[in-house]
Amino acid sequence: MRVTLDWLGVATFRLTIGNLVVFLDAYLDRVPAAPPVGLTTADVARADYVLVGHSHFDHLWGAERIAARTGAIVIGSHETVRLLHDVDRIPERQLIAVAGGEPIELPDGIRVRVLPSLHSCIWATMGGADEACLGDLGVAHQERVARVTQAMDLLHGGALGADVAAHMAASDRHPRGEGGSFAYLIETPAGSIFWKDTSGHWTGVLRELRPDVALLAAMGRGNVNGDPVQGTLAQFIASEVEMLRPRRVVLCHHDDWMPPLTRPVDPGPIRHELARRTPEAQLVDMGYLAGYPILG
């Protein structure tokens, strides 16, 4: 069985497993200033499933149009499903709500395991891949929410320009928090793929897995068991790879996906840290719409 992977910006991928097409997140349509990924939701003619990591706009938006155009089944948190059904009018028959822990059978001997995960600490100080960030420990949930709310108000209010404000008005479904974060283990006859769309994890979950391929978000302040990582993003990614022990690693969410808010993350320090700590894992450099043969 041949398995190919297209990166479509942020943490969105198109995974083709034999004849099955699975989208991982669905954020294709970006602000005008962002580099185009080579595909828009209007171009998507085939999708069987969409897995959604969490409900923020840069992950969920687009799932409703892909589902409406193709009849794809969307798998995501109860909040993701609520928004797709109540706001975007996607019928219940195309929605599977999960809470973490569910095994889901797909055609052709493919199984998806839904795993509890964590969102990156977007309320904490963050830097580049090789910039150590310390502190922000023990911040109460209410203060975390207040910081994120303030940042979202700036995006919606035009602080970063009219294009960003218009994009937020169209894309943001205003989920409760991030709507719950998941990771997914996709088990195929050709091997297994682990994917999560934000920089956070429960160490007890990752230590139990041995995927062949790991698709890992490389942006922001890592979240380890509920607290911000004390160190660099490169160290955080390397610690994940040490726990997972995959043969191949693919980075995501490190592109310049919404300027002027974002800057691309330099993968060089991550590559260096992986070479030092996990030399057996191959870091795959993947551009947009690459059609990379990831397994098989």
Task: Quickly list its features.
single chain, about 300 residues, Metallo-beta-lactamase, Chain A, seven-stranded mixed sheet, 17 strands
SSE arrangement:
Blueprint (H helix, E strand, L loop, with lengths): L2 E5 L5 E5 L2 E5 L24 E3 L5 H4 L2 H8 L2 E5 H9 L8 E4 L4 E4 L3 E7 L24 H17 L4 H10 L10 E7 L2 E6 L3 E2 L1 H4 L6 E5 L5 E2 L2 E2 L4 H12 L3 E5 L15 H10 L4 E3 L7 E4 L1
Parallel strand pairs: 3-4, 4-5, 5-6, 10-12, 11-13, 12-15, 15-16
Antiparallel strand pairs: 1-2, 1-17, 2-3, 7-8, 8-9, 9-10, 13-14
Helix pairs in contact: 7-8
Summarize this structure briefly.
The protein is an alpha/beta fold. It has a single domain, classed as Ribonuclease Z/Hydroxyacylglutathione hydrolase-like (Metallo-beta-lactamase, Chain A), CATH 3.60.15.
What does this structure look like?
Strand 15, helix 8 and strand 16 form a beta-alpha-beta unit. With 296 residues, the chain is of the alpha/beta class. The protein starts with a strand and ends with a strand. The strands form three sheets. The protein has a seven-stranded mixed beta sheet with strand order 6-5-4-3-2-1-17, covered by helices on one side. It has a seven-stranded mixed beta sheet with strand order 7-8-9-10-12-15-16, with helices on one face. Strands 11-13-14 form a three-stranded mixed beta sheet. 25% of the residues lie in helices and 25% in strands. Helix 7 crosses helix 8. The chain has one domain: 4-Layer Sandwich (Metallo-beta-lactamase, Chain A), CATH 3.60.15.
